[in-house]
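cron nightly-structures :: item 1 of 1
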Amino acid sequence: MAEYASGSIHFSGLGSDTDFDDMINKLYKIESRQAQQMLRWKADWQKRLDAFQQVRLEVLNLQSALTAINSADKFLAKLAVSSKSEVVAATAGPGALEGVYNLEVDKLATNSIWSKETGMFSKNDVVNSTGVTGTFTYTYKGKQRNIQVPHGTTLEGLKNFINNDSNNPGVKAQLVNSGDGIVFQLRGMDTGKSASLVIDSTTNLNGMDVQLTRKWEESANTSTLLASFASGSAVINSTGSTKTFMYSLDGGMRSINVDDGDTLQDLVDKINAKDAAFPNLASLVSDGSGGLRLQLSAPDYTPVLDPNGGAGGLQGFLDDGYAINPAVPGTVTQSEVDNTVINTGSVAQILEFTLDGTTHTITVDPGEKASSVLAKLNNAVGDKAKFKYSWSSGDNLKFSYETVTTPHRVFAGAGSLTEFAFEPPTSDNWLIQNNDNGKIRLNGWPADPAWLEVQSNTVSDLVEGMTFNLRSAGKTTITVDIDETTITENVQKFVDAVNNLRTVLASLTTVDKEKQVLDPEYAESQFEMQKGSVLTGNYGIQLLDSRISQAIAGKGQGFTYSKQSGSGNLVGDLFSSLSQIGITTNAQEGHTNFGLLEINTVSNYKGSMTFAEALKKDPEAVAKLFAAKSEGASDSPYFVHNSHVVGVTKPGSYDVEYTTDASGNITSATINGKPASVYTDTNQIGLFSNTQDPADGIILDVYDLTPNSTMKGTVNIRNGKVNELLDMMSGSEGLLGEKGTLKILESNYQSIMDGIDTKVKKEDERLVKWERTMRLKFSRLEAVLSKYNSINEGLKTQLAQLGNNSK
């Protein structure tokens, strides 16, 4: 706290015996009391602001703890245990089904490695001493690279040229010390049959020459048999038994039976009949010398994207032109592109498009701009398409899209038709490890002797929610179960974060009846004069505490209490509040944990099960209560939830009613008491009221179309406790938002302190003037007193002289 003292004018060596300097200093202290009081007042507001910032920190900590478990994927931890982890290790996500999985590994997937073992003794050996530039040419996954190797390049330099190539398709060169010299290795970094690597040729490189022998020539989407045949009628199987020809298409193996007496053309016809989507996969091509070769070639793939237009009034996104402008479909001006408002209404609107038969829905919020919508669209299509701006003419800018073309991959495979079976290229003077798929069998599938081929030793698409890490050949049993320990730890973190916030709120608002208070005349702070704490009675804190307490103690948003229906079936949610799963608030006054959450560990305590018992009873229901995120469901046999607009449709339970006519057609419907749209062609009803109704955006599929009937039910949009609390904190008006309670009060307190600073500054200026005036007054007084003192001294002298003269 600042202290005021008198200014720089001091009295020294004057004629008066009065200490005017001390007098002014004492008067100054009296005069500056108002300024001192304002500084103490500011210090009080600073304490309130500091307290709010402490609360904000704990709310942020709570938000962090909640975010870690805000979805079923994060909350419902599962544990996968392998009986032989040296064969297969596994991890299980929340989508994995509990149970036992028997996995057999025949062989691991391998990558291609080419090793040159002879000719080099040091990394500094020169590989090109010809005086001209040499080349090192290789092909990886169908992409060929030609590396220029200047005269004088060393083995280390060649390695660096390959690895630092900006267009390196995914290979790695390295030097291995074998003890007898340096081994140059080139390895493909991916495993599986599609990751083939071939060193095609070298020129002017010492000891690096390649002598290739191969049966098939492969690229990304084409495989050509190098053997030639005189014509398509050439017989390819005369063994007296059926043989097989195998090939891989987009990673999946196909097998063709080649009967005794089949010709080359018969094989082509059988391959083309195998997949209706690839009627021209196989063909016969010229070898350039009058003969024919078998070729498998898959076309490039282009996804189909179809804009459906803007349901709900987004005129700028209609099929004709598909351009941005809510008022005039087709164009926007150059200066308005990023800032053009797409939705000029007051409620969110829906934008739809179909990609490869799947309909995607984009929510366009009120006031949302073109650049934001563009980002949402591109996020939805991923790497299959691209939405973009493009110029048309003048200042007109089209909003368009393009699809992304990718190649289908086809490779020759194995099979018992020996002449046609794929064999990797070989070279007499290189040691080659060939790339190949791994082979596994899950729960006895596929049946012996077949194997499921995988391109990677990390397999994540075999069982939903599970990842298998293949380590060696062998058999193992993998058991998947709920990871109760991790889930309980997550819930404990949730409880701890809530309790930390509640503890801080209690410490800042508590009233200490035993506290000794000071008289206002002696108190340095307002808080020294009261029994309450810094935020006792603060409305903002009371509101925050009340909202969080209600969210934790109340029924989950959109959840319903379980009950038996007329048919005796249990309907509703098994768990709809935290107290039902053993998480309660300690209500025992005087207890150390009074007001804090506790996880019940005592069976049947006040009729509640323990958290461990609830988790064993129905882990899915526990996860839903905690982490459901805008999850839609219906409790009616007449209709089911189809979809809703996240962010527009609010969590809650909404009554539904619809009526059918004599033909079973839906004639009218309501959702949450509001007239709903009826889509007779799809038997759906939906609510888009344009009145910001909390049920806006819900679409339901109607199943019961009994003629002349009125059906009723409820649709629920559920939010678990975690997301209910997170929603309370998020957004501009949330607890942590710029327009939220904490921010508003912090801003108000800061404004008050800024106002006090202004008043203190003015008071400083007044005190400076006051002190200057007082010192001038006392200075003049000192001068007068000095004058009369001199007169007095003179009179004394004269009187003394008169006395002497009278003697």
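cron nightly-structures :: done
The chain is about 25% helix and 25% strand.
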